[in-house]
């Protein structure tokens, strides 16, 4: 019956990786009833011993076989490394070696020279104990997985397999109890463990057919491999074709077992690159990933991209290579069209960038013209007043002292009348340049109107403002402007207003600034009346 089920599973199922593990386990299960049946067909003790040993080898491998099979049932096959498999098999292997060696009949001894009846020793009970330990571990693993899965179909698969494990474990316990422990008081019932193996195997077969267990993912991957439009050829390290799908047929005619000759394949193709270098790397650098685009001669305008990837094991040994073929004709057309549009767009963008840069320069110039005086490059009166409204509010909030200088050029009308407006403009410009050299970066110099200028100095107390005003006046007084054959001496009169942080209080900044400039203007007027070329402090 086990043999019939074995053939049935092979005949009616795709043989996936998990099926291979199951069939190996199934084969081990078949050895127990085969050995138990065959031992009764001969009277030769040596032949009987051979079949008995075969049965117990199968029995010894049932436990680790179950445990490893559970890893595949629960989707944890990736955890099975070689070292871990050896670790799982080692206890059972030691017991099997002890059974075959049978030192001093510690495993079993014949009765009356025949192995039809046997006496069991401590090594037999150690083997039984270890087998039940394997079954218990496998049961716990199945129970744990059954709690974590959410798919109803998967839960039914695992539940059916779990029933099979309980059946096998139960019949194994019954066989040991009846046919070994109670053999002196009860008649032997042959085939109990074999019946348990058969019934448990029926549970597995039901799970296979009813619930579609075993490596659905591998089946899906196989279907995808066969029906995908990308051509795929899998070759071994010598270039022999191991697998080829239907998608490769439009590009290359190749069948399993043949040798894929890359040089012959590339000969009629037109490569979009160095075909000889590609072939050289394919032949002499099999560990590298490669890609090349080709044009098929038999169909004008058709392009194919070939990619080659090595298949390596854990020790970086080359097992083979995967060659894929992608039809990139439409992609090439799109790329060409995209490049054409990109070039046109690039040209348009360059034009727009040029226009944008010109607009930026014009805007900069307009902004500069809007806030500066064209003759001196100083800020104009409009910008000054806007800035001061903001600055005095900050000064009041944070109690920051500041100063305002208001000055004009002495006897400027006489200079204009005597030397002309060009010299007058040069006097204004050179005076502004000299004053600018004496200021800090935070100070604001503005042309207030005509030959009159204003300076705003933040963070400046009375002593500092008085000292700086004297320094500016002296610097301007050292200035001489060319007026043809003569030189014009320039002096300024200055009114200075200094605001300390303690006295800074106002409600309307505009009204406050009018008062400030009125005070500074009064000080300037006083400086002119007192003889010019001097500084007068307001208030």
TrEMBL record:
The chain crosses the membrane at residues 21-39, 51-73, 85-103, 123-146, 158-182, 188-209. It comes from the Bacteria. InterPro entries: Diguanylate_Cyclase, GGDEF_dom, HisKA_7TM, Nucleotide_cyclase, PAS, PAS-assoc_C, PAS-like_dom_sf, PAS_4. One of its GO terms (biological process) is negative regulation of bacterial-type flagellum-dependent cell motility. Keywords: Membrane, Transmembrane, Transmembrane helix. Residues 290-340 form the PAC domain. GO terms for molecular function: diguanylate cyclase activity. One of its GO terms (cellular component) is plasma membrane. Residues 400-539 form the GGDEF domain. It holds the Pfam family HisKA_7TM. This is Diguanylate cyclase.
């Amino acid at each position: 019956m086990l043999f019939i089920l074995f053939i049935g599973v092979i005949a009616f199922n795709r043989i996936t990786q998990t099926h291979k593990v199951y069939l190996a386990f199934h084969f081990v299960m078949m050895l127990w009833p085969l050995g138990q049946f065959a031992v009764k067909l001969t009277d030769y003790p040596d032949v009987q011993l051979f079949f008995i040993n075969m049965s117990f080898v199968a029995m010894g491998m049932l436990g680790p076989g179950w445990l490893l099979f559970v890893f595949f049932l629960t989707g944890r096959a990736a955890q099975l490394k070689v070292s871990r498999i050896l670790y799982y098999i080692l206890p059972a292997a030691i017991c099997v070696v002890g059974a075959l060696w049978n030192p001093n009949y510690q495993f079993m001894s014949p009765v009356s020279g025949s192995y039809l009846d046997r006496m069991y020793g401590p090594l037999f009970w150690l083997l039984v104990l270890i087998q039940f330990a394997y079954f218990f571990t496998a049961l716990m693993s199945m129970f744990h997985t059954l709690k974590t899965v959410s798919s109803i179909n998967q839960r039914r698969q695992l539940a059916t397999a779990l029933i099979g494990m309980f059946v096998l474990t139960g019949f194994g316990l019954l066989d040991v109890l009846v046919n070994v422990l109670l053999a002196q008081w009860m008649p032997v019932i042959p085939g109990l463990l074999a019946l348990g193996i058969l019934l448990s195997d029926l549970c597995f077969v039901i799970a296979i057919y009813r619930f579609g267990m075993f490596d659905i993912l591998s089946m899906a991957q196989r279907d995808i491999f066969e029906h995908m439009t990308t051509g795929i050829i899998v070759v071994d390290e010598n270039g022999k074709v191991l697998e080829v799908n239907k998608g490769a047929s439009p590009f290359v005619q190749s069948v399993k077992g043949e040798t894929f000759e890359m040089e012959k394949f590339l000969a009629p193709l037109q490569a979009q690159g160095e075909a000889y270098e590609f072939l050289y790397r394919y032949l002499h650098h099999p560990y590298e990933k490669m890609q090349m685009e080709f044009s098929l001669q038999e169909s004008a305008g058709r392009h194919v991209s070939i990619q080659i990837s090595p298949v390596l094991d854990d020790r970086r040994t080359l097992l083979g290579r995967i060659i894929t073929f992608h039809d990139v004709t439409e992609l090439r057309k799109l790329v060409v069209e995209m490049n054409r549009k990109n070039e046109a767009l690039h040209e348009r963008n360059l034009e727009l960038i040029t226009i944008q840069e010109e607009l930026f320069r014009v805007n900069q110039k307009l902004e500069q013209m809007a806030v500066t005086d064209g003759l001196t490059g100083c800020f104009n009166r409009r910008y000054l007043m806007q800035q001061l409204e903001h600055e005095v509010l900050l000064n009041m909030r944070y109690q920051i002292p500041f100063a305002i200088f208001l000055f004009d050029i002495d006897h400027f009308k006489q200079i204009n009348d005597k030397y002309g407006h060009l010299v007058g403009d040069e006097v204004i410009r050179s005076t502004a340049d000299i004053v600018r050299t004496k200021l800090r970066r935070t100070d604001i110099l503005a042309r207030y109107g005509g030959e009159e200028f204003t300076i705003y100095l933040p963070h400046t107390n009375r002593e500092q403002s008085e000292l700086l005003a004297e320094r500016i006046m002296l610097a301007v007084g050292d200035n001489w402007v060319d007026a043809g054959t003569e030189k014009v001496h320039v002096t300024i009169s200055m009114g200075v207003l200094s605001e300390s942080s303690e006295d800074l209080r106002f409600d309307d900044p505009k009204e406050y600034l009018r008062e400030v400039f009125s005070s500074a203007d009064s000080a300037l007027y006083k400086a002119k009346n007192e003889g010019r070329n001097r500084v007068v402090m307001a208030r």
